[in-house]
UniProtKB/TrEMBL annotation:
Its main location: membrane. The chain crosses the membrane at residues 50-71. Signal peptide: none annotated. The gene is secE. Component of the Sec protein translocase complex. Heterotrimer consisting of SecY, SecE and SecG subunits. The heterotrimers can form oligomers, although 1 heterotrimer is thought to be able to translocate proteins. Interacts with the ribosome. Interacts with SecDF, and other proteins may be involved. Interacts with SecA. It comes from Kocuria rosea subsp. polaris. It holds the Pfam family SecE. Belongs to the SecE/SEC61-gamma family. This is Protein translocase subunit SecE. Residues 1-21 are annotated as: Disordered. GO terms for molecular function: protein transmembrane transporter activity.
Amino acid sequence: MSQTTAGRASGQPPEQGAESPRGVFGRLFLFLRQVVGELRKVVTPTRRELVNYVLVVLVFVAFMMVLISVLDLAFGQAALWIFGQGDAAG
């Protein structure tokens, strides 16, 4: 007796060569039902939470911009110190 989707343990991929009990439209309908089910679980943040999330992202992005700028300046100065200005008098 072959295993069905319901009989298979959750999270296991279907066996190779095993035929799906549903056709293309059945699988599409199942997928759409699962999408709708997942969308019902989504919780919309309150206005205060949304403002907090936006502020956290903006502060993080600003911090990363400053950090990368400082590192770029430091590595640039280190490269100039190591390799010189490139104006070797010859």
